[in-house]
Design goal:
Elements: E1 7-14, E2 23-28, H1 54-63, E3 70-75, H2 84-93, E4 97-102, H3 107-113, E5 119-123, H4 131-135, H5 140-154, E6 157-164, H6 173-183, E7 189-192
Parallel strand pairs: 2-3, 3-4, 4-5, 5-6, 6-7
Antiparallel strand pairs: 1-2
Length: about 190
């Protein structure tokens, strides 16, 4: 990908994507996983049909300083883009908070981004051993496991959540996921599939 953040969409104001904060959401293009129930499937390719220029997004953020508390980087999978680090730094330099929505596909990149994050929402797709069934990508479960460990150790405020896809309702998968997150001293937030 190019050095400028590839942006596939923008929500100008939200109260639900960054707990306790008034924020805008920048939807980053690209995701290595192929979850069949993805509600942002248009963001999976590296290049989308509706690209927004990152500099125009920065101008919008600049105009909203003092009105918005922060910016959420969502996707797609934001960490798929190496340009995310500089984009987050830009938002911080504008005096705003940063939130990240991630599936944990790139633990090494997540490690570098966590110091810039005020809050992270991590989507857990399945019990780690079942990830490939949903993502269609080998090693995705191990990537997610590493990212979850990094997030838990980071001290950054966060939430683990899952979309209740039909596969998770079978063979005790959702219960196993809830038990795993409970063993971490946290609660798994359930989202209904749309």
């Amino acid at each position: 990908m190019s050095s400028a953040l590839q942006v596939g969409g923008l929500t100008r104001c939200t109260t639900i994507d960054f707990p306790g904060e008034l924020a805008a959401v920048v939807y980053c293009q690209g995701c290595p996983w192929q979850c069949h129930y993805c509600h942002n499937a248009a963001l999976i390719p590296d290049q989308g049909q509706q690209q927004l220029d990152w500099q125009q997004v920065v101008a919008f953020i600049h105009q909203r300083r003092g009105l918005l508390d922060g910016i959420v980087f969502s996707g797609g999978e934001p960490t798929a883009q190496t340009a995310l680090l500089d984009a987050m730094r830009t938002v911080k330099e504008l005096g705003m908070k940063v939130a990240l929505h991630t599936n944990g596909a790139y633990p090494d990149r997540l490690r570098a981004l966590l110091p810039l994050c005020n809050w992270v929402g991590m989507d857990l797709k399945a019990p780690f051993d079942d990830y490939e069934t949903i993502t269609k990508c080998p090693a995705s479960g191990e990537q997610a496991r590493q990212s979850a460990e990094l997030l838990r150790a980071s001290g950054v405020a966060h939430q683990f959540r899952t979309t209740v896809a039909p596969l998770l309702k079978r063979n005790g998968r959702i219960e196993a996921m809830q038990q795993m997150v409970k063993s971490w001293g946290e609660e798994l937030v359930l989202q209904q599939q749309r």
